[in-house]
């Protein structure tokens, strides 16, 4: 097979795009796709400082690589979740990546921040699924780091497969409020929130994996031992089957939702969040979900100690 752009020998075949590329053209096309998404959705400009949340996995490191190469002003943010050797190893990958490219990196270690509660301790104390506690805590520390660092925008490595799976889950349960908010750019609804963007939302997991490989990015291959929500994985598997039967399904699903589906779910007016009485971050009640989680940990620990 020949490269669609330059007719050299192709190394990768993208059925969803009905195209094949050699290494150099693939890298170029991938970057161009990301740049186009950033421009089309007005995610950020070259004058803005972008905080890139990096987990050490292929998506977020590929994102940081692309943004830095495109000349954006980026700083990495790694949140150490305290999930045993998985966290240690992902931390190492992120540090090595940043060091090799001379890019600034901020690290927030949950063991050593605020109440010093990492994910396993919170999950054990509250008997919640680790993923639920983890997602909530990550969001809180992303928000705090972006606000305190004075960054106008926070970028995450969510890709097309992530977005399609989330969309499928929201549709299957008809979560109208979630559907209204599912978009590649989330404008801030509170002075302490910053814009949140997903520049990889139109590139598939396969494409990011190929990009990371071609760019020689050393990322953590193993999945989190807490195995991201089983239902999310089931949705991804179902979408993979649909994609195999009809290439381009995921892209169409997400793009058409954003173009013509989402507007049906947008609520006319949403109450803006208030300030959490405990931590000052935006909240939809007197205390934010993060502080309520910490309260729950304390309560359960106190109850266990007195039992
Ligand atoms: P996940 O929720 O694990 O699928 O990750 C989605 C995105 O969140 C990743 O692409 C990263 O941008 C970001 N992310 C996940 N885990 C971390 C972490 N420990 N530190 C910083 N960013 C993260
Ligand atoms: Zn709070």
Radius of gyration: 20 Å
- Tell me the span between the first and last alpha carbons: 69 Å
- CATH T-level fold name: Rossmann fold
Q: Specify the overall morphology.
A: globular
Q: For the residues shown, what is the average pLDDT?
A: 93
| Cofactors and ligands | adenosine monophosphate, zinc ion
Task: Explain what the structure shows.
With 307 residues, this protein is α/β, with parallel strands linked by helices. It has a single domain (37-272), classed as HUPs (Rossmann fold), CATH 3.40.50.620. Helices cover 49% and strands 12% of the residues. It has 11 helices and 10 strands. It has a 6-stranded mixed β-sheet with strand order 5-4-3-6-8-7, with helices on both faces. The protein has a two-stranded antiparallel sheet with strand order 1-2. A two-stranded antiparallel ribbon has the order 9-10. Strand 9 and strand 10 form a beta hairpin. The model has no long low-confidence stretch (mean pLDDT 93). Residues 276, 278-279, 281, 283, 287-288, 290-291 line the site of zinc ion.
Summarize the structure.
This protein is of the alpha/beta class.
